Amino acid sequence: MDKENKATVLNILIVDDEANIRKTLSYCLAAEGHMVIAVSNPEDAVEEARRRSFDMAFVDLKLGDEDGMELIPVLLSDSSWIKIVVITAHASIETAVEAIKLGAADYIAKPFTPDQVKLITRRMGKIRELETEIVSLRENIQQIGPENSLVTKNPGMQRIIETLKKAAVSDAIILLQGESGTGKSIFARAVHNWSLRAAKPMAVVACPSVPSELLESEMFGHARGAFTGAVRDNPGRIAACEGGTLLLDEIGDMAPGVQAKLLRFIQDREYERLGESILRRADVRIIAATNADLEKKAADGSFREDLFYRLNVISLTIPPLRQRPEDILPLAEGFLAYFSRVNHRMPLSFTDQTKESLVNHSWPGNVRELRNAVERAVILGNGDKISMNDLPGNIIPAVKTPAIGDKVSLAAIEELHIRRLMASTSSLQEAADILGIDQTTLWRRRKTYGI
Ligand SMILES: Nc1ncnc2c1ncn2[C@@H]1O[C@H](COP(=O)(O)OP(=O)(O)OP(=O)(O)O)[C@@H](O)[C@H]1O
């Protein structure tokens, strides 16, 4: 089946008191690859809807003595995204209109054919797909900026990217550690995009930016009246990214109460909204990021040890920019091209001295600092070259580089030679070959000079 005609796999709830209809509908929908749960009464329907996240529901309006119409607002208040198709025995326009006024998406009249069911389900699937895409695009809009460059010449970074690509296709939790500004959220997004969940939404919850009660409500949702100001139900980010990925940024700062709830969610995939005691389930992949030493925090008791072990399945540390100097210029050139474009400037370039100073700077704020420095230079600079005057004052002009025969130590010449060579070669092996040494010796020299 080509991509256009391929039906989105949906979680579908069937509510009908007639066993025959439940069986036929289940058979027809399962044959299309959907996940189906069928129940015979409103009580079981509510119970199921609270335990799982459904994309769509077929609801019979006559459920024995009970009225399926009353189920519509209840299902919608739990899952505002659910597409409800009501089943009416005799196609009556009045009841269909009433159901749609209550929020149903469509109706189907008994007796119906499998083709009618397939058609309506595909249409609902398309709408769910578009809605999911909108959520993802909204998240992406906040990220709009220079193209993220995941191309790196640094062997350590190359290994990290390889590991992330392999891990992406599993559902394993990934813990990204590293100094602030190293690009942890960029890598988390890349993992989501490489994963089988890429078509589902990704959400980000920044743990330190909100107080503990709000963080709990943001993640797990709340019931109306759960706290002052909770004027309506909120399904929470976990429910909103069902089937997708949730990035928990700065997890080291998460309050202990929220840590306990997260641990339970990781273990059982179950959670409760704030101010409610209904157990809910969700299928969400967790990526956690932190610039704190989580192991140390777990050891000194400021982070739950059991949660740390749960998170520490695939743990990677993104190296600071100063430990991957070969990436500085390619990243800077990428930012320069982007900011020249968005600021309507002619294509700009760096002077040789600027390039050298960029490579020599220690970048305590990592890629974020580099990006900000280049943006500032593009806005403030004149002419078609970015000079030292356009860079922030803490970036020291590179001193005149030593030349062969100058009164300098051999080490100074060696360090400079290795740095330059590494910036212009595409692999460690190539650099080692040109230098006429093996990779281990090159590694030792890099360690000595902090390259
Ligand atoms: N490989 C990259 N390519 C392009 N931009 C990058 C790259 N890595 C990081 N950046 C940019 O650097 C900035 C910081 O990145 P990001 O927010 O991912 O870092 P972080 O490690 O999550 O930081 P923090 O710990 O402060 O949340 C962002 O503006 C991001 O766009």
Automatic annotation (TrEMBL):
GO terms for biological process, alphabetical: phosphorelay signal transduction system; regulation of DNA-templated transcription
Keywords: ATP-binding, Nucleotide-binding, Phosphoprotein, Transcription, Transcription regulation
Short name of any one Pfam family annotated for the protein: Sigma54_activat
Species: Desulfonema limicola
CDD domains documented for this protein: AAA (cd00009)
Top-level taxonomic group: Bacteria
Domain Response regulatory span(s) in chain numbering: 11-125
SUPFAM superfamilies, per the entry: CheY-like, Homeodomain-like, P-loop containing nucleoside triphosphate hydrolases
Residues carrying 4-aspartylphosphate: D60
Annotated protein name in UniProt: Two component system response regulator, sigma54-specific
Domain Sigma-54 factor interaction, residue spans: 150-379
